[in-house]
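pls design
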């Protein structure tokens, strides 16, 4: 952000740069850029920055803490309604916080176990909604990451499809940080797992949520349909824009 540029102007310029990078990555992979959705991860910024992002054209946002989600939904209710914008839940979801999320978000990215899926399904039925969810899969096998193993997700899907109250829309993963080769293996592994699961169940699994600020172009090249962008969308000091 230049010394004469407002945050609102920065938001517009940065979004245009991101869209160009997404378009280039999609073209390298022979994909239609229109098939890739963007989510602005607002967990480190306040309501004013989200307002600037709304003015810049962002329509989907995400939070990783239910309490912060509740706060932003309250602070931004009028603006979100006017723009027909929405929030997703992307962080670890504890069962005692499900009521803060169910019926409030477009998509829950972080269903990391059968137990959590069952709990979300039950609370969704109580609220008389069907929650759209993604299964979080630890494709890289890192101990620091939560989620199903690929085989656990494959085995659990038929049972999860029978739960009333949730609709399994796809898969989510996170790649090892600062390792482009490992990121590519992780994203291609998620794509291949989704293909196996589609063949086995007939479920569409149209959403593959993978790719963040440092690796979203790699994710798009490997089949991501939804990228989750935080620092690159909101931080004027983020330095890697334009680098691969």
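designed seq:
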């Amino acid at each position: 952000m230049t010394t004469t540029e407002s945050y609102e102007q920065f938001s517009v310029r940065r979004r245009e740069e991101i869209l160009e990078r997404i378009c280039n990555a999609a073209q390298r992979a022979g994909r239609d850029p229109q098939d890739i959705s963007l989510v602005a991860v607002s967990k480190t910024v306040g309501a004013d920055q989200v307002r600037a992002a709304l003015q810049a054209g962002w329509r989907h946002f995400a939070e990783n803490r239910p309490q912060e989600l509740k706060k932003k939904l309250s602070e931004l209710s009028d603006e979100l309604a006017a723009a027909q914008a929405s929030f997703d839940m992307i962080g670890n979801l504890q069962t005692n916080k499900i009521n803060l999320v169910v019926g409030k978000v477009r998509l829950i990215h972080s269903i990391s176990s059968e137990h959590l899926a069952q709990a979300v399904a039950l609370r969704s039925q109580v609220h008389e909604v069907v929650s759209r969810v993604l299964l979080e899969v630890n494709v890289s096998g890192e101990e620091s990451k939560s989620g199903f193993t690929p085989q656990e997700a494959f085995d659990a899907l038929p049972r999860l499809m029978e739960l009333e109250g949730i609709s399994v829309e796809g898969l989510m993963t996170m790649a090892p940080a600062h390792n482009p080769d490992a990121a590519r293996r992780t994203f291609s592994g998620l794509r291949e797992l989704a293909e196996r699961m589609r063949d086995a169940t007939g479920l569409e699994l149209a959403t593959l949520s993978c790719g963040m600020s440092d690796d979203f172009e790699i994710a798009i090249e490997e089949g991501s349909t939804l990228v989750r962008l935080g620092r690159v969308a909101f931080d004027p000091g983020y330095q890697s824009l334009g680098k691969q």
